User: Fold this.
Amino acid sequence: MKIGTGLLPEAKPGSTMVLPVNVRRGAGPRKEEKPEDTVMHPLKMANSCGRGWLPNYGSGLPLLKDKIQFPSFVRTNPSTEKMPYVLSQLVIHFGWTWVGILGSYTDYGLHGIQELKKEFSVSGVCVSFLETLSPDSPRAKIQRTVRSITESTAAVIIVYAFAPELISIMEELVAQEITGKVWIASPSLMGSPLFFRQSLWNLLNGTMGPVIHARDIPLFKDFQYRNRPSASSGDIFVRPFWEHVFRCRWANSLTHVNAAHNESIGGVPGCTGEEQLQTLQSSVYDGANLRFSYTAYNAVYVFAHAVHKLLSCDPKRGECSGAQDLQPWKLLHFVKTSHFLNPVGDELYFDDHGDSPHVVSVANWQLAPDGTNRYAYVGVYDDRLPQDQKLIIHDELVGWGAGYSEVRNSDV
Assistant:
């Protein structure tokens, strides 16, 4: 296959990315929450801030494009609306015609499944099995889902779900020593702490899926790596984050503890505060590639440009009503009509629905023989390009699991 040239500047051969660490213990929603409850939180926020004027940088819910309900909502991250299409194009790119589907039993998952089936029906891809998941599935349901996976001849499984719903399935597959499956994951899974579970690494090796496009923010990497827990730090998340990534424990949660007074606690090494973030594997932490940091970075620039335009407009020429008596609705106009290149060269603007350009990177989780692992950029989907150029995959960069060195076959 001829390799395209549409890979974004930051997606260089051999480059890696990291998906953000969830500093809460465990993956995904808390046990008392349902995944759909967590997904709906942005709706509550958007309703309460419906007359706001700050760009959102984290919610991908398609419903938020409804300008009747959310007239002022704009976002610098992509909507999830087109993610099923992106996943289907990955399947088509690799020539797979026989796949299985695992989907969350939530609005998010059921909508994704429905859209995937629509795309597959027009492209000649057949579905071997379809199973819905929930975090509290009974043992019988888990076993039935595992049987569907193991008994199917489909080598490729599309997962449109959340990590808490999938963990029990994965653990059972590991227990049965099942290998040889290729996992194509939705962004909700690619960005989850599921990949921190070492017991699942062999099974997950080669997993591929779309993630939010990000680029290096000037000086941000150095800033991140200089971050240290201290008594003077106002960031309440640094210390639990430190425990999570370095697998250590603070002896005193209120004050910084020196190494000499912070010995092993219950078998867990004591945190010293002198641990180096640079020593962490890039799949755990990489200050150069933090996706939501980049969308927040873009949101700040949109706001700054809007303020600049408002303050510099000339009411005498009919350009605006002036900066006197500054009101949110005055600024909102300039937020919505923003169109510029940010400092790293990405074009920022919003369509009539408040959505930014739908550009996502394709990540591939790779496990090396020595146990090191990484997320590697292997392609990009850019909805602004012509149809035959929207998805570009660099096949030679893809790492396949279970000892395979080339694309797995998955046909009837």
Q: What stands out?
A: Residues 1-40, 254-261 have pLDDT under 50 and may be disordered. DSSP finds eleven helices and eleven strands in the chain. The longest helix spans residues 291-312.
